[in-house]
Amino acid sequence: MDRDKLLEAEIVSGKRATNVYADLSKGMAYYQIKKQTELALEVDNMPAVQGLAMSNHFAVADTLSSTKGFKMIARKASSGDSSAPELFFMLRGTLNETYRPIFKRLAKQTILKVSQGITGQGLRGRLMERTDYVPGMEEFNVEETIERYIETGGQYLKYEDIVGLRRAERTKTGVLMFDTSGSLFGKRFTNAALAIAILAYHLSQDNYSVILFNTKAYVIKRMDEKIRADEVVNRILDAESAGYTNISEALRIGGLELAKIANRAKFGILVTDGTFNRGEDPRSQVNRFRKLHVMGLPSKQKWGERVCKDLARKGGGRYIKIDAYGDIPRQLMDLLRRT
């Protein structure tokens, strides 16, 4: 059986991972990739479409720019399937002008839906705030109530002696700095977008900033800017990934963003593999943060992991090792819950 027939059989079976379809289609001609993509659409095999896209972006983008292609992506997006934004990030530079904004809207729809599901309810941290007691209040500070009663020397406990407690949302100020160096597309960029959307939802009533960095760092959401989560996601969908890794500039700009707000509960979250190759040693920038958490991305470079651990230790924060890019959103959610 020739390779074309073998790939066709594998697409119809739908049992292979994305990389298998990519390997089987490697080096095939444009018209062959286009034909196989049409087959993948007919049998609703998204991993095959993604694998074919890894071999030839243009052939797959051309095939998807059709009613049949739109319907498939729309179905995936409506179900919250992350393959919709993954494919958008892979092909956004080659989709035609008519279908690119449509696929972008579907990618945003998926990111918002999935991030809302991950965030859920009760993520925000809460504090107990002292207040005057009023009848019906369920919680009060026992120790301070006893102290106040003793100090007044009364024989009977009065309402004025009781120190009431009420729940108050903790005001937070945070900056997320995300490494987009190298070929960060598909699954990796989708999880970056999900992580940023989760932060946007979690701190929607507070203060936050988002910084993406590669050779240079740039702010996609300023600390003093009030915008909706869907607009933040729009900006991520337009962001580019390439270049080198300049962690120190990201930390410098992140520190400047935090300095805009007079709040003691400040924190930074750095997401990177630690293998900087532009700028100075990022460990020199740690003193800009009251608390700096580091999520260490997968890397073959052991020295990058050491840099990440040093940054978290010097920044008084947590170091979280990320084994797979798909772990980023939920790991971030857990970190925000604890911060």
Structure description:
The chain is α/β, with parallel strands linked by helices. The chain folds into three domains: 3-118; 126-169, no CATH class; 173-338, von Willebrand factor, type A domain (Rossmann fold, 3-Layer(aba) Sandwich), CATH 3.40.50.410. Helix content is 48%, strand content 15%. It has 14 helices and eight strands. The chain has helices at 3-13, 18-25, 30-42, 46-55, 57-64, 67-78, 83-91, 100-119, 142-152, 187-202, 229-238, 247-258, 302-314, 328-338; strands at residues 126-132, 163-169, 173-179, 207-213, 217-221, 266-272, 292-296, 316-321. It has a six-stranded mixed sheet, with helices on both faces. Strands 1-2 form a two-stranded antiparallel sheet. The longest helix is centred in the N-terminal third of the chain and has 20 residues, at 100-119. The protein is elongated. Residues 121-127 have low confidence and may be disordered.
Backbone structural class: alpha/beta
Strand order of the largest sheet: 5-4-3-6-7-8
Count of distinct structural domains: 3
List low-pLDDT spans: 121-127
CATH hierarchy, class of the largest domain: Alpha Beta
